Amino acid sequence: MIPVPPAIQRIPWKLIAILGGITGFGLLVLYSAAGGNWSPWAWQQGVRFLVFLGAALVIGRFPIRIFEDFAYIAYIGILILLIAVELLGFVGGGSQRWLNLGFMNLQPSELMKVAIVVGLARFYAQLPPGNTRTFTALWPALVMIGLPAALVMLQPDLGTALAICIGGVVVMFVSGLPFWWFGSAAAVGAAALPVLFSFLHDYQQKRVLIFLDPESDPLGAGYHISQSKIAIGSGGIGGKGFLNGSQSHLDYLPEGHTDFIFATMAEEWGLIGGLALLFGFFLLLRWSTRVALKARTRFGQLTAAGLTMTIFFYIAINLSMVMGMAPVVGIPLPLFSYGGSSMLTIMTCVGIMLAIENDSKTGTRRFH
Amino acid sequence: MPKKKSPPITEAWRGITFTRRALVVGGGQAAVGVALAARMAYISVVDNDRYVLESESNRVNLTLIPPRRGWIVDRNGKALANNRVSLRIDIIPDRLHNKDMVLGQLQTLLRLDGDAMERINRDLKAASGFQPVAIKEDMTEAEYSSILVRLPELPGIAPQRGFARNYPTGAAVGHLIGYVGAPNAEEYQKVRDPLYITPGYKIGKDGLEKYFQDMLKGKPGARRVEVTARGKVVRDLSTQADLQGKTVHLTIDADLQEYVARRMGRESGAAVVIDCRNGDVLAFVSMPSFDPNSFSDGISSSEYAWLRADDHQPLINKATRGLYPPGSTLKPMAAIAAVEHGVDPSERHTCVGGYRLGSRFFRCLGVHGSLDMPSAIMKSCNSYFYWLAHRLGYDAIAPTARLMGLGEEFQLAGSNQRYGTIPDSAWKMKKYDQPWSASDSLNAVIGQGYVSVNPLQLAVMASRIASGRHLYPRLVNREFRNEPLPFSPEALAVARRGMDLVVNGAGTAVRSRLPLDGITMAGKTGTAQVRGLGTGNGKGGTWKFRDHGLFIGFAPVDNPRYATAVVIEHGMGGARAAAPVAKDFMTFLFDREKGMAALEGFEAGWGGTIKERMDRDYAAWKAGAASDPEPGVPQ
């Protein structure tokens, strides 16, 4: 037997297989969504995946110390970028979510999903254990979450704002803040829901109402959900077969290559394809949860748990949306949907967690 | 809980808490994952049937192909109504995404005027979903292909190569055939047939088209196509051809029908020709008429206004809806009644220019001297018939009139009849609560007073006198017994003899003798006063107050084959206006070339064929209507 060189052993082949499996399946669906063409989506998505995967592997080599040291700086920098797009939008007379960097459009709100988790993880890692149940443990975190969430809501981007909040809240939760804080916050939140609802934009309110009763407007705004359910439902157990999806190929399914790609997939691959994809995501999340549990530092633990939630939130909201269980919010399916921003976020998460995993292999557990 | 005593917080405790809570979060995520999988299974397995159906109804668009309508043909198989290819485009409102852009393009490409755009916008507002809205019908090939090449830029536009109803002889068959039109909302509500809202589908709206709708309609075809959400057809899945409607065979002689219609010229009136052997209606004409082609293509409001404004009433079928005092055309019938009641036809009465009834003197049109019955018919002597009526009373004559078909409503396909009045004492008592008077009899016997009939009834009377049988008029091949009339041959012979003399003796219509060797026509003229007796002479002045001219006749005199009635409204006299028309189409029946030659001479004087005249009149009217807020009436 040929001994495997350590350099190759150190490459996380299993993780690459999971990521590659999900993305590869996605490429097939993109190929089909383009009517049996690698262009314009599939090949570009494939290249992007390889580039981001390489970047994630490189990030994974970084010592974890770097993330901890730069956590606040990154958070503040991205917060400034968020303010910048808000100002640009104000000047430009409309809403704007991205900054044009020349070679790509950068969405600071995407980066914030990662930065909020890393920033809060650093905060709680540094917090003396005795302060865990004090107000000191609460207000800085609320400010850190509240500022970017408010800015993103102004864009307005309800989905991303929710993702930022969820990522932050999970870090607070696993850091050991008193259970009843969350319980009462949830209760207050539920009570305040109607008030919050009134703060939403008209089109957002409409989306929520249509989510509650999609048949009320089957050809208008309820169209997305109806058509998506038709695509998934008509796929049945085995699907209509590769390249045979009528809903996507005949344009009944809107956004069939981005937000509603799961419906495109389910129509052709059926329940079997859907369960396979869910299993793939399960493997990915199981890996990241294990990274969190095995992490050597408290910063690593909290970061990995928060990033796991960030990835999960994408998946859960997107799938709920396409199956009519959540309002239409523009959240893509990680690794599957065509698009650079979400893949960048996911692969950054993966890279950071790889760094945490590598760190946990290097020494004994310590909680500083 | 906040008051509960908590354990001291250490790093170890924090680690355990983290693990516990991370597992809680992970467990929650797993639960959500299971819920998502269950949801997907529910949609794709339990609700699968429903969504497969919805997906199919998305994908497959079923387009009904309107069936080709059955033809209506004459007795020789010549088409009175057939179909021609029609190129049309429609809009499917559901698929119209950029309405203003698409309509703007169409307006430029098809040069649609303001009226058309207004109608399209109105229809679009009223239409729902996939119910197509017609943009333009009967496009030229050039227009059609200009749309076809731009189809990808015009989502929601549906071009169609269909069929439209065509009436080769146009206005000549307007009142006989009726017309077709797109079903209206009411008609759709009644049947709820999706075909009724398919563009290009027309149903019979009037006349025979309406009466034979079930026979003519045929069965629609269907085209299943795969379409994209924007309505672009991807491919044909299957097509089932339509089944053309059945052909309706009429007893009409298309050539005669057209000839009679043309021969009516600029006059307003009606003419009916009946086959004396079996009651077949050979020609059924009311003029002026409308062009059923215009109606079937969706008549413009200005053309409709033009037809309505015409005082010659082209929209009324005068052959069955026009009621006229029959005037002297009833005299042969009255002669039969008299003979049946024992009057000797050779008994003579002396006309002194009128008849004295009590203190009133009923005038005759001349001083005819001593007359027997046939010559009284020949001269149309009122005095003689006043004398008969006074002697017999009208109650003796009215039953004969009814046996001749007067006052009767016939079961005639597709016709809507006003059947007029044959009065008698019981009728008058019922209607006016007054006893019948001798002067009523005198007025009735010369076809004035309470008497009113329609031209169809007059033609039936002529055919019954000519054949001696109870002929029942028919437009399609229906069997009637046509039994002999209960009159003596002598009575019928007297009437026929008198009618022969009218044309071929020294009668009122000698100028209308047939220009043929060995074939003669018998007839009877009638002049019906429009104003009350004695107010003006009815021979001139305002058109509306001139006398009607009537004529009944049959030919050949021996062994009659064709019977006819002609009514020319305000024609100022039967001999002057109606008999010459009958003479020409009877000539045409026996010698087509001679008949056509006569007609062409007339038409040159009138300013062309019916269509040419109508087009010119309409253009003139439109020009007048454009400049004049109160459009005048064409004369």
How would you describe what is shown here?
The complex is a heterodimer of chains A (368) and B (635). With 368 residues, chain A is mainly α. Chain A has helices at 6-9, 13-33, 42-59, 64-92, 108-126, 139-154, 158-174, 179-199, 202-212, 223-235, 246-249, 261-294, 298-322, 340-362; strands spanning 99-100, 105-106. Chain A contains 14 helices and two strands, in the order ααααββαααααααααα. In chain A, strands 1-2 form a two-stranded antiparallel ribbon. In chain A, strand 1 and strand 2 form a beta hairpin. Chain A starts with 5 loop residues before the first helix and ends in a 6-residue tail after the last helix. The mean pLDDT of chain A is 88. Chain B has 24 helices and 19 strands. The longest helix of chain B is centred in the first third of the chain and has 36 residues, at 11-46. The radius of gyration of chain B is 36 Å and the shape is elongated. Chains A and B meet through helix 7, helix 10, helix 12 and helix 13 of A and helix 1 and helix 2 of B.
Summarize this structure as a short list of keywords or feature phrases.
heterodimer; A: 368 residues; mainly alpha; globular; B: 635 residues; alpha+beta; 24 helices; elongated
Q: What order do the helices and strands come in, and which of them pair?
A:
The complex is a heterodimer of chains A (368) and B (635).
Chain A: H1 6-9, H2 13-33, H3 42-59, H4 64-92, E1 99-100, E2 105-106, H5 108-126, H6 139-154, H7 158-174, H8 179-199, H9 202-212, H10 223-235, H11 246-249, H12 261-294, H13 298-322, H14 340-362
Antiparallel strand pairs in A: 1-2
Helix pairs in contact in A: 2-3, 2-12, 3-14, 4-5, 4-6, 5-6, 5-7, 5-13, 5-14, 6-7, 7-13, 10-12, 12-13, 12-14, 13-14
Chain B: H1 11-46, H2 48-59, E1 60-65, E2 72-73, E3 79-91, H3 99-110, H4 114-126, E4 133-136, H5 141-149, E5 157-166, H6 174-177, E6 179-181, H7 185-191, E7 203-206, H8 207-211, H9 213-216, E8 221-227, E9 233-240, E10 248-249, H10 254-263, E11 269-275, E12 281-287, H11 292-296, H12 301-309, H13 318-321, H14 331-340, E13 349-351, E14 354-357, E15 360-363, E16 369-371, H15 373-379, H16 382-392, H17 394-403, H18 425-432, H19 438-445, H20 455-467, H21 489-504, E17 522-528, E18 548-555, E19 562-568, H22 574-590, H23 592-606, H24 610-627
Parallel strand pairs in B: 2-10
Antiparallel strand pairs in B: 1-8, 2-3, 3-4, 3-5, 6-7, 8-9, 11-12, 11-19, 13-16, 14-15, 17-18, 18-19
Helix pairs in contact in B: 10-22, 14-16, 14-17, 14-21, 15-21, 16-19, 22-23
